[in-house]
Amino acid sequence: MKTRNEEYYTISRILDIIKNYHINIKNVNEFGNDIKSVGVAQYGIEATLPKGNVISSVVEREVMRQIQENRFIANMITDIKYIQQRWSRVTNEKEAQVLSLRLDGYKVTDIAEILRMERSNVYRLLERAARRIKGYPQNSATNSTNYENEKVLLYN
């Protein structure tokens, strides 16, 4: 039986998350910054003391609770974490370069120009990175996956 992640995080979905990663990071940060500004003003000595990273006011805690209940933002955060927790699986240097540039918001055309390669190769490397992020190829992969054949063709 497949889990929700196996059904939801297809290669196509992972490529979409990678494409929009920089926008989603920006949106989550802006949303968080808007929420952080909510609070109770402090006066006197409390106003001059450094603030910890702990959310201390009742209003801020309530706002943070509401954020976590917001499905759209929660899904965006989940997608971001999915990529962040798995990008270490991409160990090939070219794949990692392409992935890094794409996560930074570069277009495929720009990546191809920067790395001096064809756009089709950029797409191929992004797909391979997405497969690695998803967990492909498995350690027990057989030649029926054609992964080894692709590797030979790309690097020769």
TrEMBL record:
PROSITE patterns per the UniProt record, alphabetical: HTH_LUXR_1
Domain of life: Bacteria
Classification via SUPFAM superfamilies: Sigma3 and sigma4 domains of RNA polymerase sigma factors
Chain segments annotated as transmembrane: none
Domain (HTH luxR-type): residue spans on this chain: 105-132
InterPro entries xrefs: RNA_pol_sigma_r3/r4-like, Tscrpt_reg_LuxR_C, WH-like_DNA-bd_sf
The protein's name: HTH luxR-type domain-containing protein
